[in-house]
From TrEMBL:
It holds the Pfam family EFG_III. Keywords: GTP-binding, Nucleotide-binding, Protein biosynthesis. InterPro entries: EFG_II, EFG_III/V, EFG_V-like, P-loop_NTPase, Ribosomal_Su5_D2-typ_SF, Ribsml_uS5_D2-typ_fold_subgr, Small_GTP-bd, T_Tr_GTP-bd_dom. PROSITE patterns: G_TR_2. It comes from the Bacteria. Coiled coil: none annotated. Residues 1-194 form the Tr-type G domain. GO terms for molecular function: GTP binding; GTPase activity; guanosine tetraphosphate binding; translation elongation factor activity. This is Ribosomal protection tetracycline resistance protein. One of its GO terms (cellular component) is cytoplasm. NCBIfam families: small_GTP.
């Protein structure tokens, strides 16, 4: 993270991880952006992580341009990489640089003169798809195509996601970078934040200071925050104890930060990644993160370090909530969720370097999910056996469309009891859905509260928190659930000579191939396959393709499994076993 200025424009530059295992971290950042620069190597070209990143940018509607880096390295390919960007990413790149002596230390970069041929014709042709008048004037009235008009048209279509200027250079030496920096100001859209408006912002990263203090990276979208201000967080107000502002290439301790800036905020002990401050609503909408599909058990190499390992992982879960840190019911085993094996290696290295802990990770297993099959309902009535709590709770569950997520709704008069009682039911519903009939997270489930009653003043929120799991478990048992496995969408590039072996491998893996294209000796296959089988395909790919195969995959959907459903160890008391549940919570 660095902040700098271009004239009077303040630019907040946020770097993101390049590996697909960290796509959740990338997507959190993308929601903050006005625009993005996608960096592609002139040697390696389009990589799996490039596809993942561009897919996320397009999903969120973030405008972007390309910077083709390392044109001085042996094997650099500017024109070929432009073609890859167009064909493999389904984008419309426009060459904005001229390269001389590519692939050598003598490589030079020259900005394309868009007022002269052949660049003028290429740009007009690209712009014509979104503005027919450009091509008409190019042919009939070229005098109308002033540099200002072309720049305005280019910026407009970049903002609309229609075209993507592609610059080239060498980041290490600065070659080609001035043209890129100029484009940030002239071609990419920016916002006009109001420092006098109501305070709002978004927390996108958490780290720990030297004394262990939690520091929240906050993007301020409106208003001004000063030290000792109270900020409205989802878990309640928190007092700002310190502000460190990213400014002009360094970080300064300040007493205030205004809209349009990013700062590290101290004092927000209850802050979590993704928390909104004030009335912040992302202009990019609510992104539904793809879930981690792998889980691994973690244990210390020395049993005496078990408590220290748990505390360290708790801090890491602050930085990345999607690792879903959990234990079994007896708290004797620790589990974390993962997107891939590289993420496991990073967590292991972080534990060693930052906490001095040597951790052992067992082989990763697949995370399943449960989806309700039908509609079910249940009710526990106050003062009526066998309900032991001073509360009435009625719930109905029903399936939602695949991928819609879980939702809770009230179908009762919410004015008849204290608000904390309703909040207790809603929070407990979402917590209970983390472990369904078979122990897996319940997904795509609508839960409605159909009955509620208290006995004032004896009833407390605890009665509702303890009763709700029993009612929800009964409703889910009535509706029944099916255990589902994660399915990945894949894109595979292999030499045509290896195609037969690859198709055989995919068939044995139960993959479904939806599309195949063969061009210039390269076969490109797209389809779906069970996430559990991806690692096996990855291991065999180099041998079948002589190291030339490239596999890109991402979570697509959940599908019901065949045969006996796998069970998952529970982390808490089991409300599906009433007697055991009541015994454990007392």
């Amino acid at each position: 993270m660095v902040s700098f200025t271009i004239g009077d424009l303040v630019v907040n530059l946020i770097d993101t991880p390049g590996h697909p295992d960290f796509i959740a971290e990338v997507e959190r950042v993308l929601q903050l952006l006005d625009a993005a620069i996608v960096v592609v190597s002139a040697v390696e070209g389009v990589q799996p992580q490039t596809r993942v990143l561009v897919r996320a940018l397009r999903q969120l509607g973030v405008p972007f341009l390309f910077f083709i880096n390392k044109i001085d390295r042996l094997g650099a390919r500017y024109e070929e990489v432009l073609q890859e960007i167009a064909s493999q990413l389904c984008t419309h790149p426009i060459a904005m640089s001229l390269i001389h002596d590519a692939g050598s230390k003598l490589a030079k970069v020259e900005a394309a003169d868009t007022a002269k041929e052949p660049h003028l014709g290429a740009i007009c042709e690209a712009l014509a798809a979104g503005d027919e008048g450009i091509m008409d004037d190019y042919i009939l009235a070229p005098d109308r195509l002033t540099p200002q008009r072309l720049e305005h048209a280019l910026a407009d279509q970049v903002a609309r996601g229609l075209i993507h200027p592609a610059f080239a250079g060498v980041a290490m030496s600065g070659a080609g970078v001035p043209a890129l920096i100029s484009a940030i100001k002239t071609l990419l859209p920016s916002r006009r934040p109001d420092p006098d408006g109501p305070v709002s912002g978004k927390i996108f990263k958490i780290e720990r200071g030297w004394g262990g203090e939690k520091l929240a990276y906050l993007c301020v979208t409106s208003g001004t925050i000063t030290v000792r201000d109270y900020l409205d967080l989802p878990k309640g107000p928190a007092k700002v104890s310190s502000i460190q502002l990213f400014d002009d290439g360094h970080v300064d301790k300040v007493t205030r930060v205004g809209a349009g800036r990013i700062a590290k905020i101290g004092g927000l002990a209850g802050a979590r990644i993704g928390d909104s401050i004030g009335g912040e609503n992302s202009t990019r909408g609510n992104l539904h993160f793809q879930p981690p599909t792998l889980e691994t058990r973690v244990r210390p190499s020395r049993p005496a370090d078990n408590a220290a390992l748990w505390l360290a992982l708790m801090q890491l879960s602050d930085q990345d909530p999607l690792i879903n840190l959990r234990t079994n019911e007896g708290a004797t085993e620790i589990f974390v969720s993962l997107y891939g094996e590289v993420q496991k290696e990073v967590i292991q290295a972080t534990l060693a370097n930052d906490f001095g802990l040597e951790a052992l990770f067992e082989e990763s297993t697949i995370i399943h999910a449960e989806r309700p099959i039908g509609i079910g309902g249940a009710i526990e009535i106050i003062f009526k056996e066998p309900n032991p709590f001073l509360a009435t709770v009625g719930l109905r569950v029903e399936p939602r469309p695949p991928g819609a997520g879980n939702r809770f709704a009230f179908e009762v008069d919410i004015g008849q009891m204290p608000a904390s009682f309703y909040r207790a039911v809603e929070e407990t519903v979402f917590e209970t859905l983390k472990e369904g009939i078979f122990g897996w997270q319940v997904i795509d489930c609508h839960v409605a509260m159909t009955a509620a009653r208290q006995s004032s003043p004896a009833t407390t929120a605890v009665d509702f928190r303890r009763l709700t799991p029993l009612v929800l478990a009964a409703a889910l048992t009535s509706a029944q659930t099916v255990v589902c496995e994660p399915i990945d969408r894949f894109q595979l590039e292999v030499p045509t000579a290896a195609l037969t072996g690859i198709l055989t491998l995919l068939a044995k893996s139960g993959a479904s191939t939806r599309e195949s294209v063969i061009t210039a000796g390269i076969a490109r296959l797209e389809g779906t396959v069970a996430s559990a089988l991806i690692q096996g395909i990855q291991k065999q790919l180099p041998g079948l393709t002589s190291g030339a195969g490239v596999l890109d995959h991402t979570f697509d959907h959940y599908a019901p499994i065949e045969g006996s459903p796998p069970l998952r160890q529970r982390a808490s008391a089991n409300p599906f076993d009433r007697a055991d549940y009541l015994q454990r919570i007392r």
